[in-house]
Automatic annotation (TrEMBL):
CC cofactor: Zn(2+)
Keyword Lyase: yes
Keyword tags: Lyase
Domain of life of the organism encoding this protein: Bacteria
Full protein name: Class II fructose-bisphosphate aldolase
Alphabetized GO MF terms: fructose-bisphosphate aldolase activity
Organism listed in the record: Catellatospora aurea
SUPFAM superfamilies: Aldolase
EC number(s) recorded for this UniProt protein: 4.1.2.13
Entry annotated with the keyword ATP-binding: no
Amino acid sequence: MGVVPLKEIVDRAMAERYGVAAINIVNDLTLESVLAAAVERRSPVIVQTSVKTVRSIRADVLIAMWKAMTAGIEVPVSLHLDHCPDRAVITECLAKGWNSVLFDASLLPVEENLRQTIEVVAEARAHGAHVEGEIEAIKGVEDDVGSDEDSRRQSLETSVRFVETSGVDVFAPSIGNAHGVYSATPHLDGQRVSDIVAATGVPIALHGGTGLTDEQFTDLISRGCAKVNVSTALKVTYMTSNLAFLRQAEENDKWDPPSLFKHVAADVTAMAAGYIDRFGSAGRAW
Ligand code: 13P
C-alpha cells in the first residue's frame, strides 16, 4: 500500500475499533526495524519523530531515509511529527513531506492555542497533511518537551469546541496518562475518551503507551483511541539490546558492527510487533 495520509490510517482504525501503534524512532536502524514489524504483522503503522530526533538527524536526512525505506512497502505507513511547540519545525517538516504533525501548544492559553492550531491546520492542508491537537500537556518530559507537573484538565465543552473549531484530525486529551516509565499503573479516565468521541467523532491519540496494561489498551481502543503512542519502550529496548550485545562482544573480544545492528534490529522489531499484536492491528493492512 505504501505511504498514506494519517487520517486514512486512524479513521479506519477508529471505525473498526483497533489501535495503530505510533512508535517514535530515533535513527535509521529503529526506523527500519519498526517498518519491518509492520510488514511482518501485515499491519498499518505510524512512525513518529520527536523534535529532538529531527534536530539530531536533520529533517532532510530523515525524509530521505523514510522515502528510501518505504519505497515499495506493502503495508500502509505514515510519518508523524510528535509534540512540536515550534512552528518553524512544523513548517519545515510539512514542507519536506511529513504526513502529519502534533502541534503542541498545550502550554498556551486555550484561545491562543486554538488560534494557532487553526493556522497549522490550514498550513497542513496545503500539503495534504493532517494535524493532531492538544490543549492539556501530557505529564512527563519526552525528548526535552513537556513537564512533570500535572496539567489542569479542560471541560468537555472546551475540548469539543477546540476540536470542532480547529478542525484537527486527531485529538490528544490528558486522561491520567504520562510519558516515560510509570511508577505504578495509572488510573485512566476512559469515560473522558468516550465523551469526546461521542461529541466529536474524532479519533483519539493515547499518549504514554509504555507501561499500560493489556486491559487498559483494550478498553481505551474500544472507546476510540485509534492512535497509540509508544516511545520509551523503544528507547529502553534499543539501549538494553545494545548493552547486552556489547557486554558479550567485550567478553568474547569480538567486534563486528553488522552483528550488533542485526541483534538490535531483531529486538526492536520484536518489541514493535508485540505492540501491534496487543493493539489488534495485525492483519489489518489494506
Ligand atoms: P511513552 O514514552 O510513555 O511510550 O509515551 C510515548 C508518547 O506518548 C509519545 O508522544
